[in-house]
Structure formats: C-alpha cells, structure tokens
Amino acid sequence: MYKRKLSASSFVRKSKLIIGLDLTADMVGKDEPAIKAEKERLEREALGIISQTAEYAVAFKLNRHLILPVGLFDGIPRIIDAIHDAGITAIADIKLNDIGNTNKVIAKYYFDAGFDALIVNPLVGMEGGLDGVFEMAANRKRGIITLCYMSHPGAKEGYGLYVSPDGKKKPEPFYHYFARVARKWDTDGVIVGATYPEIITEVREILGPEIPILSPGVGAQGGEARTAIDAGADFVIVVRSIIEADDPRATAAAFAAEIR
C-alpha cells in the first residue's frame, strides 16, 4: 500500500518532508517558440529542484501549476522518472471531484503518466463517484489520499460545515465525517492544513495511528512545520518556501531537520 511506501521513505531518509513543485509559467499571448521555451524552463527548474532536494524528501507533490503547461504525457513523465530515480514517489494533487466514469478516465491518465498516488475529494462519495478509482489504484498498487480540511481561510465554508449524514445523529463538522470516511475506506492518507493545528489533533484522534496526515500550508500560508507535526501530522508539504528559495537544498535540509 502507498502509505507503507511513505512510511518506509520516512524511516530511511529520517524525514517527514513532502515537497510541492508548484512552479508557474506565463504563456498568455506568447508565440509557439516562446511557449516551448517556457515549458522547457519549467521542466528544467523542476528537475533542478528534485536534484537539489530529493535526499531530504519522502515524496514530491505535483499539481496543475506544473502539469498543465509541461504536459501530462510530454515533460511530466520525465519529471516523474527523476523522482523515481531518486528512490521516492510522486503524488498528483488533482483533487479529483467528478462522477465515477469521468473520475476513472482521469485517474487512468495520471496513473499511466507514472504517478504513484492521487489526491481526491471525498465529497463525491464512493458509489458511482470514487469506487472505480479506488479499485484501479488497488489493482495498480497505487495510492489514494483524501481531502479532510484544506489550508486556506475559506476552508471553513465547506469542510467546516456541520452535517448529519443520516439526518438523525447530532450534526458534526464535515472534517470529522471525512476523517471517519477515510478510516472506512482505508485511504493512504488525508490532507489537513498545517494552518489549523487544532483540527489536525481532532482528526488524529478520529483516525487513530493507521492513516497518515499530510499537512500543506507550511511557510507562505502561515503554517508551521514543527507545530503541525506536534499536533499529530505525519508529513508536512512545503512548496513556495523551498522552490522560491535562493538555496532550495539548504532550505529543504532545514525543514527536514526541524521536523525530524
């Protein structure tokens, strides 16, 4: 299972750091040669960051910042190959969120491109929503990570709502329900923002020790890596603080040491 791969990487590397490769490009109004040059720059920068920081990471997370401009079946497989060559895994942060057939098609593309795990939104439910994706992941020995509480201020408007799933029990926060769903589905991890350490602790109490918590929002969004780990997170996801640093290697090393 994918959660075991994360745990093994963490043990070997003595790290709890996941690095997000959210590099950005400006292609609006550019001609074809300029677009090609920008794509090549993004790929080159991503490979450079991987080369500099992989020894401190347990995984790399890629989202649409990089996937859309570089190309899912163009530059992205080369980036994933570099991650695999470093002995770690690649997570696609796509927050999959559609009906079942569409989800299956999308998941197949990402798995075919080489990704080891996908982040999905549990809001769409299992039957006719995510069931095919979970089945595909199991058959291909890939991972599924579910959202539980995101890192931005507006997360309370969705994940913080109070709900009664069966209309009978006392309403509870949506993120409590999503944590219980993660246990029921035996997911490979849940996302809880490092900007909300008190919610990390609540979710940990519901999850128990079996399902890892991955916490984004460290650095630029105001979350603190050590605080998130102390609250119950297993891994922190750091993006801008590393990829925009003058020395990504030193910055990644410092984060890894802080949460070791």
CATH superfamily: Aldolase class I
Distance between the termini: 23 Å
Percent of sequence in beta strands: 15-25%
Strand order of the largest sheet: 1-2-3-4-5-8-9-10
Which runs of at least 5 residues are low in confidence (pLDDT < 50)? Answer: none
Q: Rounded to an integer, what's the Rg over CA atoms?
A: 18 Å
CATH topology: TIM Barrel
- Describe the sheet with the most strands: 8 strands, parallel, barrel
Order of helices and strands: HEHEHEHEHEEEHEHEHEHH
Tally the helices: 10
> Share of helix among residues?
40-55%
What's a quick, concise take on this entry?
By secondary structure, the protein is an alpha/beta fold. The chain has ten helices and ten strands.
What does this protein look like?
This protein is α/β, with parallel strands linked by helices. The protein has one domain: Aldolase class I (TIM Barrel). The protein is built from ten helices and ten strands. It has an eight-stranded parallel β-barrel with strand order 1-2-3-4-5-8-9-10, surrounded by eight helices. Strand 1 (17-20), helix 2 (32-53) and strand 2 (59-63) form a beta-alpha-beta unit. Helix 2 crosses helix 3 (64-85) and helix 7 (197-207) packs parallel to helix 8. The longest helix is centred in the N-terminal third of the chain and has 22 residues, at 32-53. The protein is globular, with a radius of gyration of 18 Å. The mean pLDDT is 95.
